[in-house]
């Protein structure tokens, strides 16, 4: 059976959710109908536009630009600060509603998810009819709108949902790629960041179709593994497996927003080392091992991507978590500055659960000697007593201080 995948994306989520909440509390103005933005404190690093109304977009206001710039473009702009607690609740209610259709939901951010529609497709005359019921149900029940993209894999569904907005349904099946996707500017390809686009344009690759028909070896020569991935995307090749996770399998993870954007692999590796120590320690405290590791990147312009993989054997070893996350990072990193990194583990199993060994286990590196075991145990105990990061390896410390602030643990 051919997979049918939906990508469901809330239109201007932060602004829409704020508008809905204000209208519910008696406001006479709908923020979605006037020049309005959601933004942070102009004095802080987060003094940027997080979401904008269609009217604000007409002034050339872009998500991710400084709030001060937005006000220069539109002096009568209305701005409200973000309310992340409220956003999480709106997101929870949305996902709860979507799971009344099918449990095959993969949430990838607070305002978007993939749905594997395949098993329920026979209930509807067409996938578009099913998407219409979901879209209109969200609008009627919650008061905000979504775009739904439909295809046979996640990449094309994501691309489709980014077509004309808001409150729309779009298909992008493989046979529609040449007509609907290839004419688009190269910058509209998923994961084609600013620096990648500049490189591709120097190669006279201006549209997604140009990239799809280019020599993949040439692209890889200039953009390495990221270029190969972009070439695959331009040809419509993506995963069709929706990684649904049971609601009770919450997992353990941690993320951190960097005070200064990370621009090198060495900086990223050090951050993952610190995050992995925290996640590994919490797994051990809970008596758990993780069977799945996922890595999250948020770029300087707030684009977010996550990537995950199944471990050969469940583990709570920080070194393995670090190396896995770093490997996942290298597979998808565009080379652009990174402002947030995260590690999350799922598919948790009890630490006491017996492991099935294979013949290859005899090739594993030898266990640390008693001296290193005692040292590691002492470090764990000190960190548990005085707080995470009280004691760490010198190799994980950044000159001049950590240079990071902790977002909190998930």
UniProtKB/TrEMBL annotation:
Its cofactor is Mg(2+). It comes from Candidatus Mediterraneibacter tabaqchaliae. The lineage of its organism: Bacteria, Bacillati, Bacillota, Clostridia, Lachnospirales. The keyword Phosphoprotein does not apply. The active site is at residue 112. This is DNA polymerase IV. Residues 5-193 form the UmuC domain. It comes from the Bacteria. Belongs to the DNA polymerase type-Y family.
